[in-house]
């Protein structure tokens, strides 16, 4: 019998967000020839380089239900790690070389997040477990792969994110996925205008000329709508403030609050964590400092639930860097990656934040869970059942022992005939 086995999920090389206990629910779904009752999914821990974690060396096997049309699917719970997957039905097996349970981050902001200024200092990730989206905004194929030359769907260069990924997977021991949603030259007000449906926008981000465009919000909107429901997410990493200069402290705090209130409410993630770059709170020669918006960022971090401080540009290391460039060049990219990694620690952020796992999981159950044995009920059987029913009714009315014995005898006779024993 041909099984015609196909595998639609998970996505190859994708990383699925683990929960607070370190486990991720990875969707496994596909089709098989109708009539196959069960499909087996086997996750096998992969060795990466010289690192071998023997705690989960035993393969994880899960049976997936199949409906009458041959659709199979379910969520397989696995510990954080890097796996190969094989799915078997009958004598057919389909394999996927890499899939992960780990951490998922969304990058959002202006040029410090999108990057691409220093073309001579673009360092790809060296660990195969550092993953990004390979799709672009106009090409949604759910393709994932190593973070080498882009951070999809919108960043053209690895910038600091390959380095950050290497630091995180080395420390955490699990794969990491980055979505690139920053837009250079944008500000927070532009995003709020899109959310609020402003159609006559006069200030647009570089490269956008259509006021009805949803830029610069479109990359974040795309990821939160189409990808995060499938992979889950730990947090949004944010850099905004410089390009909103001219906004007073209280107003900017309120802008941040309104924006992330919308994100959490619209995508039904009320505890979604945000980590923000703390910009300069005092004048720093050569930098793009803007004191009121930086103060607004500090107030937001201190008062908004599940908001955390990321890289702090008030540390001495940044002063010498800003004397050379007002954007991220050379050592600034390295420092940016290191400070992001320092803010995503197991002892503070990871234990306090609330991760969201995939919400769009395959939910396939057999259309027929139980098949009753075929029976051939003859007219005489209907007569016996009817007489037994009359005896039961009379028993309740007249409390007669004769009717009770009649009901029992007729009931036994009916059961015996229907089961083929009489």
Automatic annotation (TrEMBL):
Key word Membrane present: yes
Entry keyword set: Membrane, Transmembrane, Transmembrane helix
Statement: the UniProt record of this protein carries the keyword Membrane: yes
Gene Ontology molecular functions: hydrolase activity, acting on ester bonds
Entry's transmembrane regions: 380-398, 403-420
SUPFAM superfamilies for the chain: SGNH hydrolase
Protein name as catalogued: Sialate O-acetylesterase domain-containing protein
